[in-house]
Structures are given as structure tokens and as C-alpha cells.
Amino acid sequence: MRATAKRERPALTCNWADIEHSLDTHGHAVLPRLLNAEQCEALAALYAKDDAYRSRIVMARHGFGQGEYKYFAYPLPPVIDQLRHELYRGLAPIANHWNQQLGIDVQYPDELDAFLQRCQDAGQTRPTPLMLHYTEGGYNCLHRDLYGEHVFPLQATILLSRPDKDFVGGEFVMTELSARSQRVEVVQLRQGDAVVFAVNERPVMGKRGTRKGAMRHGVSRIQCGERYTAGLIFHDAQ
Fold first, then answer.
1. Which of 4, 93, 157, 191 has the most crowded Cβ, counting Cβ within 10 A?
2. How far is CA 217 from CA 11, 164, 194, 208, 210, in A?
3. Residue 192 domain-assigned (yes or no)
4. What is the pLDDT of residue 12?
5. Domain for residue 6, yes or no?
6. What is the extent of the structural domain holding 201?
């Protein structure tokens, strides 16, 4: 059963027009300084508290890469719960526009709780926000985060560690494959930055109209140090 934590973060002040333009153009958008250093350190410290999570995944056991991640249990930590609700609210109109462009007959409600009720009614009741931890040699294979019938087409990752201080390497990587092109992009993030990106497919505008771009994301190999990130997925899992 999903529970709601007391929220402890003010409303986001994002330029959603710029975010939508970047998502439409590149398949991702960077939200700079979404969290400050203190908030990042507090979230990273949660990784050691097993009672905050419903499960732990060792990536090598499943062929996912090298490293591990943990899915939060409900109720989510307040900052994660707040960000999940507020980012969804800004992203839902973009997701609806994408589905219209792709000819997908699914529209998302304005508020996250209504969408999570849709997931719950379909048996998707397990929370999907997570924390990821990599050490030297760690990486994440290219993948998609789907989890069930109901999928929100955008998600976010927040970098909690400091590049070139806490770790070296470990860049966020995206690939896009469509009928006429393929593309690889490395997204540079600083501590506290978030990247919002396509989960699975996105509309790609071309000379002959809109086509589907198949998106995958991953993390390049960590050369040294430790890298922590928080992931915000808006649909729950079966």
C-alpha cells in the first residue's frame, strides 16, 4: 500500500518551456542545481539505511553492469516524494504531447497521485524511485525502465556525488536509434544536477514528418572513486 511522506521542499521553479524544447530536440534536458550539496549528501547517506528500501539489486548477477541499486519502500523520503510529484506535474503536458505526436492513445492525468492510482489498479504497486551506487570499475549497461503495462515516458536522474572529486568517469550516456539515424550523447552533470530523459521512445521530427526514436540510457565505467545517484521513475512496478 502506497503511503505519502510529509513533504519538506518548496515548489520547483523550472523553465518548462526550455525543458520541453530540450526534450523535443535532444531527448533529454538538464535541470541545474536541483538539489544543493547538503541535500545531495543527506540523500547519499540514506544508501546505508536498509530499512528505507524494499529491495537491493546487485547488477552483475543480472547482466546489468557492475554496481548496485536499491528501490525505496513507501513512504518515500520527503525530498524524493516532493520531487517526484512536482516534476511529474511539469512533465505530464510534455508526455501527453509526445503521445499525440506518436499516435499513442494514452493521456496522463495532471497529478501524480491519479496516475499512481492507475498503476495500482493494474497491479503495479511497488515503488520505483531508487538509489544507485558505483565504485571503481562500475558501469550501467544501456537499458530502459519499463516495469509494467503503464509507463510514463519520461524519468529523471539526480547526480549526488561530485565529478572529478568523489569519482572520475561515470558519465551519463544516452543512445537514440530511429529508422534513418542513430546517435550517442554524453550528458555532463554536476553535483545536484538532474537530467530528465525519455524512458523508451520519443517523437523525432524529420523532413518527412514525425518518426519514433528508440532511447536507451546507461553510465560509463567509473575510473576511480564512488558515484551515487537518485532515480525518479514515475510509474510503479508490478
1. 157
2. 28, 21, 14, 27, 22
3. yes
4. 78
5. no
6. 16-232
Residue 8 lies in a domain: no
- Render pLDDT for 17-70 as a digit per residue (tens, 0 to 9): 999 999 999 999 999 999 999 999 999 999 999 999 999 999 999 999 999 999
pTM higher than 0.90, yes or no? yes
